[in-house]
Amino acid sequence: MNRNRFFLAIAFVLMILPSMAGKHPKNVIFLIGDGMGLAQTYAGMVKNKAPLALESFRHIGIVKTYSASHFTTDSGAGGTALATGVKTKNGMIGMNPDSVAVESILHLAEKNNLATGVVSACAVTHATPASYVAHQINRNMYEAIAADYLKVDIDVFIGGGKKYFANRTGDDRNLLSELRQKNYKVVESMPALLQVQKGKVAGLLYEDHPPAMPERGDFLPQATQKAIELLHSSRKGFFLMVEGSQIDWAGHDNDSEQIAREVIDFDKAVKAALDFAREDGNTLVIVTADHETGAMSLLDGSIMQGEFKAAYSSGNHSGIPVPVYAFGPGAAEFTGFFENTAFKGKIASLLRIK
Ligand code: MG
Ligand code: ZN
Questions:
Q1: Which of 19, 41, 97, 220 sits most deeply, having the most CB atoms within 10 A of its CB?
Q2: How far apart are CA 193 and CA 199, in angstroms?
Q3: What pTM does this model have?
């Protein structure tokens, strides 16, 4: 009798284990297309003439992006909401509206011994990546933000902005030597980055921002793939944020062709994340935006020719909600309408970290 009950209990555990594993990812890759609303995404789809990786997601939701101070957010408040779960005033980084530092999901993951990383197609000191790492009252304090990278035990960061580490005007610190003292491999070119096989990496490949597409080449997908490769050996799992930064800049310029190019490039980074997640089986991939840029609308075009005609009602951001796409264990949590502040809590509870 007791033996039967024992086997029944074992059978029950074996039955529920797979469904438990199905809900809790070990790794999370969070990709932000800065300024990438639905119109920008569709522009990329039309221009690409073949399906984007983004079209393969089955769990899709809508995110409200307003900030604590404005109907229309900037990337500081937008990034801070995505990273920390707190709406703040436009221009602030990793702080609440009262200028008190708030903890990002990256910090929380680090505290729980997960490996962490940031990859961006701009200077790593720029608003979106900064929101995951730094705490500053103003997004333009690039040197202070660079110094904040030394206060968190982030494993990998790759982007531009070397001058804010190496040629500082506000003090005479050389953050590149300080990073080396903290056991980072500091790499300054893509070939050097691709050679690194393990350990902590500070990839500062450009003095300021990486160039726009197509001059940037495969920087973003390659850096994403390398970051995943470096982080995935972590026994406890990893959190990686990847940003397609320049969709937003093309949006400010109301440059339709460039928006499509930047979306297609970002989609290659999404594909790198999805390829890894499909093989790994324990990785949640989330793709969203911090806000829409340009209040872009699509008026006409040709699917066959890969052409579209766009109009814009702004040279700045808009308040239009943005899509979110999710794949992997826990993906169903990211459907329906929700606030940009919901990500941190959802990700933390899926990763079972506090
Ligand atoms: Mg950005
Ligand atoms: Zn912008």
A1: 220
A2: 12
A3: 0.94
